[in-house]
């Protein structure tokens, strides 16, 4: 009986969050170990199906760097990086589209449907979703690497209204039809802004944003993030993620969460528990206080 009561208490803790986010859009950037480990892949699919079943509207934007690297190796194309970005010539872009828009995208769709959900896989080229242009890295041309010029969310909104989970591969094209490989964090941030998402969740392979002593920082504002980047306390691969988080918030997204995708059911834990499992980034300190007040008011009403 105690075990059953404990399960009921878990559901009651989640109830205010279910009510608050029902009918709202949650954009999830899916990448890292969560896409490679079989158990984590299935757990992620279960999380997404549950979110949709509870009345939330999840939208997935996925990466696929390691899978692209393996595919290039199999066909004998050398991988080169410039300023941390994969140099993407025409031959490489063909593999990128095949892996991102085919293998990975359709695998995610299949896992969601395996658990009773309905999903549709698209790339940024479908429905004119992502208009892109060439990205120069410190003035260096790295080929078919792109930046987002505009997001046209109509195709996502129609899929969402029809009850499907959109699964987006981060590929866009320009007005001439040239395809570009785009950083998945950036695409997730831009899509979240275009949809007016309540939350953007970025899955990583670290616990969240750490301080200089490698201690998790559960809550940061935009100002906190930028000060820590300038001071060098946030560095390396976390810098572009933090920049995407800040851009999303300034573009109207409610909250951004940078969480550890290696934790089973990390998405559910971050959305439906008060402590979460990573770092939450908000526009200003009052946002956290307002959330706490809403939870307290909901708990009293219940």
Tell me about this structure:
The chain has 10 helices and 14 strands. Helix content is 45%, strand content 24%. With 302 residues, it is an alpha/beta fold. Helix 7 runs antiparallel to helix 8. The protein has a single domain, classed as Acetylglutamate kinase-like (Carbamate kinase). A hairpin with a 2-residue loop joins strand 6 and strand 7 (140-151).
Write the layout of secondary structure elements.
Blueprint: H1 2-21, E1 25-30, H2 38-53, E2 57-62, H3 65-74, E3 81-82, E4 85-86, H4 90-114, E5 119-123, E6 130-137, E7 140-151, H5 154-161, E8 165-169, E9 171-173, E10 179-181, H6 184-195, E11 199-204, E12 219-221, H7 222-231, H8 238-250, E13 255-260, H9 266-272, E14 278-282, H10 286-301
Parallel strand pairs: 1-2, 1-11, 2-8, 5-8, 11-13, 12-14
Antiparallel strand pairs: 3-4, 6-7, 9-10, 13-14
């Amino acid at each position: 009986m105690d075990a059953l009561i404990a399960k009921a208490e878990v559901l009651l803790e989640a109830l205010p969050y279910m009510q608050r986010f029902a009918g709202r859009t949650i954009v999830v950037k899916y990448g890292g170990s969560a896409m490679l480990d079989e158990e984590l892949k299935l757990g992620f699919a279960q999380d997404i199906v549950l979110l949709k079943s509870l009345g939330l509207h999840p939208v997935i934007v996925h990466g696929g760097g390691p899978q692209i690297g393996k595919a290039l190796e199999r066909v004998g194309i050398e991988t080169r990086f410039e300023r941390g970005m994969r140099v993407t010539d025409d031959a490489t872009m063909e593999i990128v589209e095949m892996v991102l828009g085919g293998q990975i995208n359709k695998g995610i769709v299949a896992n969601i449907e395996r658990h009773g959900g309905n999903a549709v896989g698209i790339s940024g080229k479908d429905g004119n979703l992502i208009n892109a242009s060439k990205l120069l890295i410190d003035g260096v041309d790295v080929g078919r690497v792109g930046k987002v010029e505009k997001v046209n969310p109509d195709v996502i909104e129609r899929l969402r209204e029809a009850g499907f989970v959109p699964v987006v591969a981060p590929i866009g094209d320009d007005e001439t039809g040239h395809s570009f490989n785009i950083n998945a964090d950036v695409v997730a941030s831009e899509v979240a802004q275009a949809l007016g998402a309540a939350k953007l969740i970025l899955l990583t392979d670290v616990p969240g944003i750490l301080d200089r002593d490698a201690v998790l920082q559960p809550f940061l504002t935009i100002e906190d993030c930028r000060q820590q980047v300038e001071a060098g306390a946030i560095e390396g691969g976390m810098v572009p993620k933090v920049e995407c988080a800040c851009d999303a918030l300034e573009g109207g997204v409610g909250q951004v969460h940078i969480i550890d995708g290696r934790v089973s059911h990390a998405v559910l834990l971050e959305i439906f528990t008060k402590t979460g499992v990573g770092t939450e980034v908000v526009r200003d300190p009052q946002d956290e206080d307002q959330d706490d007040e809403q939870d307290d008011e909901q708990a009293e009403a219940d």
